[in-house]
Amino acid sequence: MNKVKIFTAGIDLGSTMTKVLILDGEGKSRAQVTGATGAEHRRLANKVMAQALGQAGLSLEEIGYIVATGYGRVNVPFADCQVTELTCHARGVSHLFPSARTAIDIGGQDAKGLKIRDGKLVDFVMNDRCAAGTGRFLEVTAETLGLRLEELGELSLKAASKVEIGSTCTIFAQAEMVALLSQGRPLAEILAGLHQAIASRVVKMVTGLKIEADVVFTGGVAQNAAVVQAIKEKLGHDVLVPDEPLFTGALGAALLAREIALKCLANGKTIPDKERRLEEARLYEDY
Amino acid sequence: MAQDRGMDRAKAIYQDRSQRAGELKAQGKQVIGYLCAYPVLEMMTALDLVPFRILGDMTEPISRADACLPTVVCPFIRSALDLALKDRYQFLDGVVMAHSCDVAEKTAHIWHSYLRPPYFHFIDTPHTTGDSAVKQHKRLLKDFQKTLEQLAGRQLSQERLKEAVKAHNQQRALVRELYGLRKPDPPLISGVESLEVMVSLMSLPVDEGSRLLKQVITEVRQRNSGPPKKPARLLIWGSIIDNSSLIQMIEGLSANLVMDDTCVGSRFYWPDVAATEDPLDGLAHRYLVALKCPRTFRQADPNKASKDYQADLEYRFGYLMEYAKEWRVNGVILQSLRYCDIHGYEVPQVKDYLNSLGLPAIYLEYDYSQAALAPLRTRVQAFLEIIGQGNF
Question: Are the beta carbons of A86 and B365 separated by less than 8 Å?
């Protein structure tokens, strides 16, 4: 079955970032591209796809199967099917770390916990209703403190001690930060407190799943070393982080696309069976 | 669709619940609103009063209730009180509430103070199922009967009460028959339609409701336009669902909702009232012990000193496995309204119980608002992918 060479792609339309990953005929990554999903760019997933195709040196027709996932997965006019981000993340995590039993994913506007058994998703929790303790929280923090998002983690790890931040509500925490700054508390200590608060929130949420090792941490926020460190401390054991945590969902989607495509071919079905248009994705709000 | 007259009527009542109540009032009937599943319907029916279930309206933004009720409580009860404050329950000749949960108890006071219904009664339904609790419940039901007699201006004979018990049992049997039509694959009636029928029954006098039910059952048996076959057959458990949009969202995915354990559904109708010499004995037992809502502290043998944990679990949740078997369910949705303590507390145990027997379950908390359904769709879809019935 693996002798069939087929390119597949996964597109993960997150609330903040759109990620595309293309797998080659051997199932190895051939291209991976990110672009902003937010505000004015939200419908421009086709641009990110075009860029990934350019990087891979392929045309849309040469991709055997495309799976869309993430918040904006519905109605991607060039995808062949949609699978939830929960299933795709679990698939991506298991591929990267076959020993994974629990995964924590913190993205731009949500956080989730996944329970994995034998490489398959068996249970999950997701945060509700608000973006407290997610990437958006870190963005607002960076803005308030006049820092770049990428600087937060490094700076925080330099703190000698950490302040107590009472809330991961983005609005309340921002007010708390300003108050602490005016009291003259060092920036690094405030950041350390914030990262602790994010870790506490997500670990509490995932505890309901009965956490088992190995634990993998993915999503954009896993790029922040201080959050990784704080989660390790809260859990009391190590946490595995992929080299490119942002692409886990897109990777899972591309792997599922590959599985589906190979299964179809084995059954003598043609793929893809739907017309594709490299056009703007539509969101729920468009209806 | 011309032959679906019963179904159409049920849908029309679901969409405008007060219209028929208005007609009945014009004929001189008295309509009594009741909140939750605990007020005893038979007593009202026996005195020729029309019991009318008080429900909320998910499509109506809560604006008045927040002035007299905390915002961090059951959004269903907030909605129901809000509707009353907006005169949507003005046609009621009286209101009866029970200590079904703490929010219902506190709201009973508020309802009474702010709305001053001509008749008002509160039943302090016990929270345990032992012999003394049942005895106490019987006494409380006698008190309820006395106030109803004052309202109706006449005594209630045991014979009349026994007849009412029969009439309501007959309706319960019909509801079970209707639910039986959800056993085939595909089911003959969808979860959305089933809910519409249940809401309409709670808006009609018992005999009229039973006639409608018979008509619906006949139509459903004969029609050839039922729900399509879907890979997943789900059971939904939990807080009250009185609006079909949550079920519509679920049935819009690759699943049919074939069974429920909620109180505008099987939970309300399942147990019959036993024919006892004194009808109050059968009623006291049915409405306290046989009615399975987590608001009651239920134990396999409450009168024994030592408690068997496994027996308790079976007693509390065993019926769900029976439903799952009979309706060939392959996944359970455990749902709780936000701030619904009684269901929230129950979730971890019921989930562990079902999982231990190999039945996958997912927990959803929802806001009693249509806007909050989109994120829930992702969860349900992921659940369908987990149980291998997803559409990929």
Answer: no
